[in-house]
């Protein structure tokens, strides 16, 4: 399993990124390294088809243009690729984490790839190929600073995927208002699936920290200089966040998070 994660992350072949080989059976003891060592990859392999840029392209202000929607869907696709890679990264980076956590991370990796294919099929049907727009590895730049599995679930799951619940709700509405019902339906499906991803992070945050999810504990677990202000969309998707296990106290504190960043 560890070899699969390594090969998936390091591959520079587009097809291997989009559709990697089947994973070993996660329930079989022999699928796992009996004495895993820590492997902290800094950046993934990138196929030549992907033009990785140092700054994120601006989010289109209006989505009535098909070109603007294609650009945004391509960005979403790359977000899913990074999320899939980073779940595989966690298996390698935190070898002492419980097997249950690592198997769950692999399952979420595969679900992220399923989302990627929803976006890829949409793009293909609109005459757009993976790589037609530039991408940025922003998630990789941040998540790989996590010192432990607690920080990982705080940032990747409760933070980035939590904010994706907000962004999905917002953009699903925008696509529907632009008359793109298929695009809106895809984004809504991703939103529904992401609730379970955030719930997974909440469960493991509580397991790793030994206490119920609490806003202040979560904030302190984020790797500096990241702060909760970056982990939300506007408006917040309170109903989806509640379904994932965030209570009203957590949501009120997050809504009032200031714009400042902590010093490193």
Quote the beta fraction: under 5%
Distance between the termini: 34 Å
Q: For the residues shown, what is the average pLDDT?
A: 95
What count of domains describes the coordinates?
1
Helix/strand/pairing category:
mainly alpha
- Can you tell me the residue ranges where pLDDT is under 50 for at least 5 consecutive residues? 260-264
According to CATH, what is the topology? Ferritin
Number of helices: 10
Shape: globular
Helix content: 55-70%
**Major sheet details:** none
* Total DSSP E strands: 0
List the helices and strands in order.
HHHHHHHHHH
CATH class membership: Mainly Alpha
- As a whole number of angstroms, the C-alpha radius of gyration is 18 Å
CATH architecture: Up-down Bundle
Can you give a write-up of this model?
There is one protein chain. With 264 residues, this protein is mainly alpha-helical. The chain has a single domain (2-7, 66-255), classed as Ferritin. It contains ten helices and no strands. Helix 1 packs antiparallel against helix 3 (66-93) and helix 3 (66-93) runs antiparallel to helix 6. Residues 260-264 have low confidence and may be disordered.
Give a quick precis of the structure.
The chain is mainly alpha-helical and 264 residues long. Helices cover 58% and strands 0% of the residues.
């Amino acid at each position: 399993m560890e070899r699969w994660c390594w090969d998936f992350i390091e591959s520079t072949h587009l097809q291997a990124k989009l559709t990697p080989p089947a994973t070993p059976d996660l329930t079989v003891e022999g699928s796992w390294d009996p004495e895993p060592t820590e492997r902290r990859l800094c950046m993934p392999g990138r196929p030549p088809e992907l033009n990785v840029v140092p700054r994120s392209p601006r989010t289109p202000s209006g989505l009535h243009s098909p070109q603007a929607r294609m650009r945004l869907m391509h960005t979403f696709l790359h977000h899913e690729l990074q999320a899939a890679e980073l779940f595989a990264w966690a298996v390698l980076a935190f070898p002492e984490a419980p097997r249950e956590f690592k198997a769950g991370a692999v399952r979420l990796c595969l679900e992220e790839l399923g989302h990627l294919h929803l976006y890829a099929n949409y793009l293909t049907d609109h005459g757009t190929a993976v790589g037609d727009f530039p991408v940025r590895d922003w998630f990789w730049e941040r998540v790989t600073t996590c010192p432990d599995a607690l920080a990982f679930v705080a940032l990747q799951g409760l933070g980035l995927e939590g904010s994706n619940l907000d962004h999905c709700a917002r953009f699903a509405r925008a696509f529907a208002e632009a008359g793109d019902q298929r695009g809106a339906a895809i984004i809504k499906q991703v939103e529904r699936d992401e609730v379970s991803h955030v719930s997974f992070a909440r469960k493991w945050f509580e397991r790793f920290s030994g206490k119920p999810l609490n806003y202040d504990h979560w904030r302190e677990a984020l790797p500096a200089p990241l702060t909760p202000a970056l982990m939300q969309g506007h408006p917040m998707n309170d109903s989806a966040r509640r379904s994932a296990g965030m209570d009203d106290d957590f949501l009120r504190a997050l809504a009032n998070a200031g714009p400042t960043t902590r010093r490193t």
